Amino acid sequence: MATAAKTETETLSWTIGGMDCASCAAKIRGAVERLPGVSDVRLSVMSETLTLALDESRTRRDAIEKRVASLGYTTKPVAKPASEPKPTATCGGCHDHGPADTAHGHDHGHGEAKPGAVDHGHGLPGHVHEATPDGVSWYRTGKGRLVLLTGALLGAAWLAKFTVSETTAYWAFVIACVIGVVPVARRAFAAARVGMPFTIEMLMTIAATGALVIGAAEEAALVVFLFAVGEVLEGVAADRARASIRALGDLVPKTAIVEENGETRQVDAAALRVGQIVLVRPGDRIPADGAISDGISGIDESPITGESVPKTKGLGDPVYAGSVNREAALRVRVEKAAQDNTIARIIRLVEEAQEARAPTERFIDRFSRIYMPAIVGLAILVALVPPLAFGGEWSVWIYRALALLLIGCPCALVISVPASIAAALSTGARQGLLLKGGVVIEAAARTGVVAFDKTGTLTAGEPRVTEIVALTSEERRVVELAAAVETGSSHPLALAILARAKADGVPVRAAANAAAIAGKGVTGELDGIAVFVGAPRHARDRASFDAAALEAVERLEIAGKTVAAVIADGALVGLIALRDEPREDAAAAIAELKALGIRSVMLTGDNARTGAAIAGSLGLEHKAELMPDDKVTAIKELAREAPVMMVGDGINDAPALAAASIGVAMGSGTDVALETADGAVLKSRVRDIAAMIRLARAAMGNIRANIVIALGLKAVFLVTSVLGYTGLWVAILADTGATVLVTANALRLLRFDAGKVG
Predict the structure, then answer these.
(1) Which of 189, 333, 349, 739 has the fewest CB atoms within 10 Å, i.e. the most exposed one?
(2) Out of 453, 606, 630, 688, which one is annotated catalytic?
(3) CA dihedral defined by 635, 636, 638, 640, rounded to 10 degrees?
């Protein structure tokens, strides 16, 4: 027996053009998997890549390219996996430094998060995010031009119908239909040749052809046009999602200042090596994950954790790429390479979540796998069995088979479901509820758990003074002293104190000799009185705290508030408590969700005390001190119980938004959150989350009713056609009537009030 030759496979990758949805990926996978020697097929819609293992002794790589091209997609080989990500685009705000913020010693107690796991796969195709020019406008693509052309022909046909003649209009509709259906039919037959005959393209081809055969050219042209519009919208949505990934990469600065042997030089941030020391000036974004080797400063980690109050960090504390140094110069030791930093992990999480949560396959495409073969098979049986087996008259049974095919034409079904979706999307848009397509509506309707981010979602995202404890002076004097040394600062806590002074009518005079003590607080003089404002733990070095003061500090901190101590000439005069308070409608929103049978959970990067205080006041569960990857883990745990809707507003929420069954962004949130999310509440009202779910449930109820109407009428007339009670003209009337009925039912959604409770 001859020894079998050793099989050698090579991993190959291609960039695929035109792959805009999971259905596209499924067709490509199904086509290439059937080729001998092909294994481990992986497709990424987000990065438009195909990766597979190939034994070229059985199938050549150009055969793969030809097979994919036959389905209507373009291929471009990726020579080899990149070993390291290419430089990202420069962050527009990285080096536009305003005046350095006044340093603060306010310690709001966030838990220190540990760096996440190394992303070993970030150098593979699909994980390289380089600056690329804007994509081609939709109307310049082949699909876009097809939509414009068929739309113009439809308009011309309708105009001819009312101004010229029915005959002229009929042929205009025929031309519009043929032009629109030819590329669809080409893809349908290409898929059929590789073993996938019942795709949505085949369904559309049969529906349009059948409608033309029975003389319903107007209906055929409209169906083809709507299908083309849907394909263009899919492409636009996919491009916007890919743009959001690039926006995440832009958070990391393109360059960094490396310090070596007492000298500094500017280098590419993507080339930083573990162990190097980088200088981060006030106002700069930190270029890499690392630990502070020298300096104390307030670090704005809102791009990572979403929290609005900067955290004071010093020697040995971890810092993350993309966060902003607010106060003083820092030296940071690089501990992770560019492809492994926090922003890179966020990008990876978004991509993985997008791929793992493939959109629900279109209902019609699923149904056609059973419905269309059954109808065609039944028609063939009706035409052949009675004449051959029972001596029936051929003309009679062929006529009945033709009637059966006509009543089985899925035109009404093809139109009715998009009609419901379009009506729901229109209603939502008018009411400030943005839902990105029918798949999102379906997911929202199934929601069983809503996970909320805290800062900027359940809360306004801006701290404000909630309480003033006057100890040795009156409240107005405490505010006056604090405001004097905070004047001119852009720190969120300083702005909150100044806002309280304005609200109370307290005159604000700038303190003399105002100065920041990095990591501790601010000082100055007002009317010859030395003033210090800072966290209690630093203030105790400057003044004594009696039992009442210590008790007040503990009470306020247990309530999840940031406490600022105000000291005048070495004496503690009062305490100022600040907190980012819940939105006015947050409690009502949680109650409405509970009434809908939906569980609510708050996920926050803030400290446990603050999280517990906010969650307790709103009556929902909570998990605190979470980094972005922790939120993804929490979402996956919740998903074991029921479909999860994640609601957030920050860049740090992007992975969780993508990992959930449906991600919803607040309208006031970041562009990345809005792009990554499946929907948005444009008015930034928490109660709109419940309204969105009510609208989604109403839309799905409408869709189910439409399906019952469309298929119910067909079922009745299929039986009557086979038995000979109804002929061709009744079949045509039934099909048209079903279309009218389901469209009218869908239009009822235009009057739906999503904000109405009950």
Answers:
(1) 189
(2) 453
(3) 160
